[in-house]
Automatic annotation (TrEMBL):
The gene is not. It comes from endosymbiont of Rhynchophorus ferrugineus. It comes from the Bacteria. The keyword Transmembrane helix applies. Keywords: Membrane, Transmembrane, Transmembrane helix. The chain crosses the membrane at residues 27-44, 56-76, 88-108. This is Uncharacterized protein.
Length: 111
């Protein structure tokens, strides 16, 4: 889990350097928090930081979906745009629900 989060953050920093995301997220200051999460797995602070990590992942996924939406809009602009827009919204809602389940599972794991 920690390796996956670290890889995602490294990829995010690389994407920020390449200016591929529409909404740039400066994530350099988050690296100490990740190291703290690896060292201290229990406690309130690490749980809050985990929540912050999941919300940041949601923001990254939202950016990626928005870029995909623009690409689909460019290639299929003569076809039904509303269908693509609805698909984008449903994808985002499904991913949001999945991340909420992950957060709830993490918060109630110790009880």
């Amino acid at each position: 889990m920690f390796k996956k989060i670290l890889i995602i953050y490294i990829l995010l920093i690389y994407i920020n350097n390449k200016n591929l995301l529409l909404f740039k997220n400066k994530t350099y200051y988050l690296i100490p928090f990740i190291i703290y999460n690896i060292i201290n797995k229990n406690g309130i602070i690490s749980k809050i930081l985990y929540l912050f990590n999941y919300f940041l992942l949601l923001k990254i996924i939202n950016n990626i979906l928005f870029i995909l939406y623009i690409i689909f809009f460019y290639f299929y602009r003569n076809k039904s745009i509303i269908f693509i827009f609805i698909n984008y919204n449903y994808l985002y809602i499904i991913i949001l629900i999945l991340f909420l389940f992950i957060i709830i599972k993490f918060l109630f794991k110790n009880k």
